[in-house]
Amino acid sequence: MQLRPTRKEDLDQVMGIISQAMTYMKTAGIDQWQNGYPDRPTIEGDIATGIGYVAEDEDGSVVATVAVTFDGELSYRQIEDGAWLTDGAAYATVHRIAVRANCKGRGVSSYILAQVEAMCRQRQVGSIRVDTHRDNRSMQRLLQKNGFSRCGRIFLCGGAEDGHERIAFEKVL
């Protein structure tokens, strides 16, 4: 498996994976990604700005998608009911991680997080931050299994989910 930047020709596959994730969340009763986000323009923006990545299996098939930024996150400036593990230091942010339905349970998400850690070490970035919906237990388990600590609650700033509460996690590398 490899993690590589998303290309324009990956767009349809990425949107298919996101659609599967939206369906999963709806079926599981998770009120996340139920209002049209993330949409095609969001993923096109990820490609254009170089923050979109896909995981490919050994056959070259796209099996997952993720966005990784190193610019800080406006929504993370204020945290409630806790505190970030690091303060003022550079960090990576992981957004929009989704795995193709028939590849779940194969360690793809853990592989992606390990690759993000490697990206951070290359850039000398000391931590990774992620947020997720309070009902998205599978994402919370993934993060805890991979050494992330629950830090508190944040509220999203801007976009289709403006003001929505999320549980915030961080891992110090």
TrEMBL record:
Organism the protein comes from: Neobittarella massiliensis
SUPFAM superfamilies (alphabetical): Acyl-CoA N-acyltransferases (Nat)
Record key words, sorted: Acyltransferase, Transferase
One term of GO molecular function: acyltransferase activity, transferring groups other than amino-acyl groups
InterPro entries: Acyl_CoA_acyltransferase (IPR016181), Bact_Acetyltransf (IPR050832), GNAT_dom (IPR000182)
Name of the protein this chain belongs to: GNAT family N-acetyltransferase
Keyword Acyltransferase appears in the UniProt entry: yes
PANTHER family registered for this protein in UniProt: AMINOALKYLPHOSPHONATE N-ACETYLTRANSFERASE-RELATED, AMINOALKYLPHOSPHONATE N-ACETYLTRANSFERASE-RELATED-RELATED
Entry superkingdom: Bacteria
Domain N-acetyltransferase: 1-173
Record carries keyword ATP-binding: no
